[in-house]
UniProtKB/TrEMBL annotation:
Recorded GO MF terms: hydrolase activity
Name of the protein in its database record: Metallophosphoesterase
Top-rank lineage group of the source organism: Bacteria
Domain Calcineurin-like phosphoesterase: 1-197
SUPFAM superfamilies: Metallo-dependent phosphatases
Cross-referenced InterPro entries: Calcineurin-like_PHP, Metallo-depent_PP-like, Metallophosphoesterase_sf, Pesterase_CT488
Organism in which the protein naturally occurs: Merdimmobilis hominis
Length: 230
């Protein structure tokens, strides 16, 4: 079993939201499918870091989940800022079961074992680019969800590897609420998405305050899942 990650597939089989209009996104679904199945086997696990589907409801996102379900490996997905189909964890997991999406699991206030010595943890996160006070409620909620996930990981045992949608730090901005939790639990690796196009030049892709931050948005990694070594 190997562990991979990729973020922001922005699928739209059930709605009219083509990504091909953006530079570098031509034929992105075909490229994603080909690259994914080339590197990932059915024994592997892939963490998908949010912005899964443009669907506004679970019904609209169904075809996108079916596409993901049919790709090689087990998938652990988390919510991104454009995943408007999400309402609750219970409804999402029930939807997966009802539709036979048996390769899909959801990362939300929980954790998953990865091999003998590592655990998969994470949450959506949030970015407060200018420290706006109005974001405090959201920031604290996401920090709390990250803490719940890391606590669940402690019970499973092993080094926590964190996956988020938003970056804990970007350009000259940082999310101290999230970074503080990562440091408290001794997290050394964090993978994130959300950043696209010209924003790549400002992304932190390396060590930051003792944590290895890695950008894995689809268009940054050429629509090919990145292996997470453990």
């Amino acid at each position: 079993m190997r562990l991979y990650t990729i973020s922001d597939p922005h699928l739209s089989f059930g709605c009219d939201k083509p990504m091909d209009i953006f530079k570098g996104w031509h034929d992105h679904v075909a490229r994603l499918e080909e690259n994914w199945n080339r590197v990932v086997s059915d024994e592997d696990v892939v963490v998908v870091g949010g912005d899964i589907s443009w669907g506004m409801s679970l019904a609209e996102a169904k075809a996108d989940f079916a596409f993901l379900n049919g790709l090689n490996g087990k998938k652990i997905i988390l919510r991104g800022n454009h995943d408007y189909w999400f309402s609750t964890y219970a409804k999402t997991t029930a939807f997966f079961e009802q539709n036979g999406f048996d390769t899909l699991s959801f990362l939300f206030n929980n954790a998953f074992k990865a091999g003998e010595n590592h655990v998969i943890c994470g949450t959506r996160g949030w970015v407060s680019e200018h420290g706006e006070q109005v974001d405090k409620k959201v920031l604290n909620r996401e920090a709390g969800r990250l803490r719940l996930s890391l606590e669940a990981g402690k019970k499973l045992g092993g080094e926590p590897i964190v996956f988020m949608h938003y970056p804990p730090a970007y350009y000259i901005y940082e999310c101290t609420e999230i970074l503080d939790v990562l440091k408290e639990y001794g997290v050394k690796r964090c993978y994130y998405g959300h950043i696209h196009g010209n924003g790549h030049r400002y992304a932190i892709d390396g060590e930051y305050q003792g944590i290895d931050l890695r950008l894995v948005s689809c268009d940054y990694i050429d629509f090919t899942p990145v292996e997470v070594e453990f």
